[in-house]
Here is the input.
Amino acid sequence: MSNSFKYAVAEDGICTLTIDQPNSATNVMNQDFLDGFRAALERALADDQVKGIILTSAKSSFVAGADLKSMEVTLFGKPSAKTLYEQCWEFSSLLRRMETGGKPVVAALNGPALGGGFEIALASHYRIAADVRGMMVGLPEVGVGLLPGAGGTQRYLRMIGVAKALPLLLQGSQLKPDKALELGLVNEVVQADDLLPAARKWLLGSPDPVKPWDKKGFQVPGGSNPMLPNLAQLFMGTAANLQANTYHNLPAPLAITSCLYEGMQLPIDKALQVECKYFVKLNLDPVAGNMVRTIFINKGEADKLVRRPAGVEKRAHKKIGVLGAGLMGAGVAFVAAQNGIEVILIDRDQAAADKGKAYSEARLRKDLERGRIKPEKVDAILARIHPTTDYAGLSDVSLVVEAVFEDRGVKAEVFAKAEAVMPADAVLASNTSALPITGLAETTRRPANVVGLHFFSPVERMPLVEVIRGRQTGDTALAHALDFVAQLKKTPILVNDSRGFFTSRFIGAFINEGLTMVKEGIDPALIENAARMTGYPVGALTISDEIGLDLAYKGAQQQAQDLGKDNKPGSSVDVIATMVATHGRHGRKNGKGFYEYAADGGKRLWQGLGDIWPRRPEAEQPGVQEVKHRMLYAQFADAARCIADGVLMDPADGDIGGCFGVGFPIYLGGPFAAMDTVGIAAVVAECDRLAARYDAERFAVPKLLREMAAEGKTFYGPNRVVPPARQVTRA
Amino acid sequence: MTEAYLYDHVRTPRGKGKPDGALHEITPIQLATQMLQAIRDRNRLDTRLVEDVILGCVVPVGEQGGNIARIAALNADFAQTVPGVQINRYCGSGLEAVNFAAAKVRGGLADLVIGGGVESMSRIPMGADGGAWAMDPQVANKTYFVMQGISADLLATKYGLSRQECDAYAVESQRRAAQAWAEGRFAKSVVPVKDVIGLPVLDHDETVRGDTTMEKLAALKPAFAEMGAKAGFDSIALQRYPRLELIEHMHHAGNSSGIVDGASAVLVGSKAIGDQLGLVPRARIRSAVTVGSEPTIMLDGPATASRLALRKAGMSVGDIDLFELNEAFSSVVLAFMAELAVPHDRINVNGGAIAMGHPLGATGGMIIGILLDEMERRNLATGLVTLCEAAGMASATIIERV
Here is the structure.
């Protein structure tokens, strides 16, 4: 057993338990931790000298919560429900023991206490939060498909009532100390130096070690009968809103609501068991595992630049150039400036460059009005953006982002201008979403320094950056580009250059399938609803209208030009051509696309679609499941080809890219996580069925996937396949 | 097989289901009691021969709890030997009570049974009984629960109905009800409700508004639009019916059933008991069914129930001379008419619940009586009465005059 818990009893009978897990920057709740906690607690309870207990931490945070990384074993090892229950109950019952042990415990929160860490605090008899930078308390488990299974739901409920507890739990709210105090979730907020003295003072006042709910006559605040009118409304509305917002795809919010609905009607010990059982249920559901893996584990590694080539010293970018002050360029400039980087923002004329800076001004002004930022900070950020037409400012930049028109000629021109001035070791990055990097690099002086940095709009909100390695991109430039992404606090995925990279072709598969179904006479409403029900934020027809049908049309024409006789137009190209060329419908931008757009912002599907592409009779319309599968499996097949062809080096990049960049349903974890969950053999069988029924190419399964099915290999886990791109050693 | 016959039926007039309604001062036990007494007195029944009292009551809590049927029988001075049971098949309870009575008779297990129902919506509001369907998150989630007003709008959208059509139907219901009252078509079966000193407190259906017009209804905002959008019910409905783009909201208080107080009683028996007591049977139960249907749209079961009742009776739609379908919402009847190709001059000819109100547990016992009276008035042979019920159910009964 480790000695994570330092035990010290003072003359006044106050025992201080200081949690200080060896060899870790944070206190993580693993088995060692639990054993140490139990031992220390029992010792304090048995010790006649001890009148009261202070629980605090020697780290910068209090307790970091459950060890999600070790949960990966649990989540994918498929232990039995019984085993999981015993594990969960071990912790919950330990906290209950602390709560009912007969001696007062005060949680002295020196730093953030989230998830399991806050559950420890909630089981304590008093909570004091230190008002330090970054201090947060809360129960965010819903965000990874779980719930707080050690009393979090039941103690929130009994402390502040259903109406207040429900939104906090469903949103996984992380609270600043003053907000937590206001809600009644902590008892005091003090300066850091006063934390332990305040804890001691409370204990010396001989406080009651019995919680309200362990006393006779206790009533849950706001009522404990869900059939009472106000609570009935709340539960009915909550259940309905969950279905409306999550389309039956997220089990965690429903489980949390049931913990409250059922728990409020039970005495706390029974209620804690029910909570534990719902926790186990979530653990057994593949959603939690997939969300933990993608959102927490894989994203965490990506944020730490796991793909960064070794042996290259870290580059701290202090000054960059942005070529093109349009929407994307302005966004990149904004985020860079927010993160302390000077930006030379260049455009063809000064007015355009100034307009690019105005993007930042507008957003900062909004934040200022809402009190989210101080005026000094606003000034500091804006001072870093230098709009100009003069390339001379690039002489001491470490990186340049090109964000001009998607036109080879225009790009070549600005590349040349920039390269004439910028340092030889600076990275030249293109934000292109469509033109292969290798080709762009060939027009430059130093192709080894050319890399793709594909940002997503709006840049300040979208966490993903698709980093594209051209055939000639060197390790140094790649490493420095990743350093830049990290400085912007964004999440990079690494993609090997090819047409459409990963994200563009991946979402393209989804859109293409949706639009193809329109020309087959399938109900447009069905196509759109099926997408939302699958968990995509919006349907294919909606996205197409938002992006602009005219842009898609231009892209298709460009591709035809590029590839000449080798061009294979997608199955929806004729749909787009008809909409744009024959009917002049460009999408939202000109008020008409697949939808008709009203002045008040409303929209309805265009009735004219049925005239161009006659609707199939009701009996011949597909079921919603078939429509869902067409879109999903078209993407599965495409993602599998990306791994097989070496576009992706690792399934994690595909999952992160899909979910954080282009709207793939997060509860599935991403295309590769989803394929593992469905089962590779089942994916192959379904793709073959769809290929035979609809189109051999769109659902074509790469040989790699068939081999995986035959060998029992998966994308993740102990039987993971080695992606072909990893098998190639770079010269 | 023994046949089951309808011998008599009575109903209270329907009082407005609010505190200012004429029947608000009358306890629900009293409403039920007076109808049991009426059916006893009109038929000079020796109540020792009544073998069961089955009353529908959809919100059996508070004053309506504790098996109101048995208690009403005692309170009506029926013989102590008369048992009673309260049932709940939601809005069709009154008809189901008659169906259960008929089943007992047909099965040879009883000779004389009273069916019917009671509901005082002004004193015991809808929903007061709670229940897991809407409230338990696991259940609501699993069953895609939506409020019934959303179901009505969903039904209207699915059948491509317009606001105008729904309002026009409502205007006609009011006109027909007003005309029926004016012509005394209900006179022989509506029994005025009396107070404790024997004075009548109500002798007509209080909520009829014969002067309803399209303009008046057009002023009403759709009642369920906000709930559909804000509470998420529209999204749930579309998840069940994904071929629809959105839910068109068109129902409001003016084209939905009225909230009222009322009670009914129906005398069901074998031929033998009729002969014994000198009672003339008025109609024979040909068939009686209840079906389950999709619970989210909730209200489209009557067509299925009717088709099944017809099949069991060896009949077709064309064999039915007259229909009564409870007017839960305009779309319920309009959708039914479209499904079975029933013309408007053969259904709800004396108006319906949109005009006269729908006292939940009692209605089924009322509209089977309205159907029978009108069949007699027009000298028609066959009739079908049906009601949609919550959670996706519907009951239908076919009667034939004798």
